[in-house]
């Protein structure tokens, strides 16, 4: 099947359940992204800053770019003028840098707090208590150019669907609690970004509003390393 056919299948299924489809375009060539774009996709997710910067410059300006990978504070300045949503925010320090760069660009940047829900040491994210600590911090209250619109989580990489279901469910329960405690009057706090190709159906059933699907749409990735392309100075 073509990229357009794959996209149509997933887009129809995901959106009929009330969620948004983020097409994960990392390592995919411009031509493949354009094929998805021409088939109606507008939200694309990238893991690495340099790769997203290069693609944003070459592709239509009505694309919503989501940074879904781990973001280093010193890379924020490269995407602050165009990024739509940053999924993996896992520290107050990073929020402060995003706020700083957003202010320079005279905009407000939407962010998701990444919560650690997996039973794996390799995953990034905040503990439930750390999320609450950030939201109660006086320094957080001073940030005027960022907007927390929800939470993000990555489940354990396992075939045990019961475990995955529990992890997603716990995040939804936590989201509901945070909504009531800190964002009761904020209609914008509504997103739960969980679910990828292997577990997106479970994620949606457990309250996900955004799912991230890549290779199932685009096919096998072309491996290219962008991590060290941008100067860290």
From TrEMBL:
<feature type="modified residue" description="N6-(pyridoxal phosphate)lysine">
    <location>
        <position position="26"/>
    </location>
</feature>
<feature type="domain" description="Alanine racemase N-terminal">
    <location>
        <begin position="3"/>
        <end position="220"/>
    </location>
</feature>
<keyword id="KW-0663">Pyridoxal phosphate</keyword>
<comment type="similarity">
    <text>Belongs to the pyridoxal phosphate-binding protein YggS/PROSC family.</text>
</comment>
<dbReference type="InterPro" id="IPR029066">
    <property type="entry name" value="PLP-binding_barrel"/>
</dbReference>
<comment type="function">
    <text>Pyridoxal 5'-phosphate (PLP)-binding protein, which is involved in PLP homeostasis.</text>
</comment>
<dbReference type="InterPro" id="IPR011078">
    <property type="entry name" value="PyrdxlP_homeostasis"/>
</dbReference>
<dbReference type="Pfam" id="PF01168">
    <property type="entry name" value="Ala_racemase_N"/>
</dbReference>
<dbReference type="GO" id="GO:0030170">
    <property type="term" value="F:pyridoxal phosphate binding"/>
</dbReference>
<dbReference type="InterPro" id="IPR001608">
    <property type="entry name" value="Ala_racemase_N"/>
</dbReference>
<protein>
    <recommendedName>
        <fullName>Pyridoxal phosphate homeostasis protein</fullName>
    </recommendedName>
</protein>
């Amino acid at each position: 099947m073509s990229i357009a056919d794959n996209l149509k299948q997933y887009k129809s299924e995901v959106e009929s359940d009330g969620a948004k489809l983020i097409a994960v375009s990392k390592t995919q060539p411009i031509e493949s992204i354009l094929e998805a774009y021409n088939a109606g996709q507008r939200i694309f997710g990238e893991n690495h800053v340099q790769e997203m910067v290069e693609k944003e410059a070459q592709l239509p300006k009505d694309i919503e770019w989501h940074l879904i990978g781990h973001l280093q504070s010193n890379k924020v300045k490269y995407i602050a003028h165009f990024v739509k949503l940053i999924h993996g925010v896992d520290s107050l320090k990073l929020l402060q840098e995003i706020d700083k760069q957003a202010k320079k660009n005279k905009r407000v940047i939407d962010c998701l707090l990444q919560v650690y829900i997996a039973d794996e040491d390799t995953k990034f994210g905040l503990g439930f208590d750390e999320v609450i600590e950030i939201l109660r911090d006086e320094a957080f209250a001073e940030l005027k150019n960022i907007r927390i619109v929800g939470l993000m989580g990555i489940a354990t990489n396992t075939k045990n669907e019961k475990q995955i279901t529990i992890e997603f469910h716990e995040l939804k329960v936590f989201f509901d609690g945070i909504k009531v405690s800190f964002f009761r009057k904020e209609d914008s706090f509504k997103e739960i970004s969980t679910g990828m190709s292997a577990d997106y159906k479970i994620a949606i059933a457990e309250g996900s509003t955004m799912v991230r699907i890549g290779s199932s749409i685009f096919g096998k990735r072309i491996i290219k390393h962008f991590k060290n392309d941008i100067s860290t100075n």
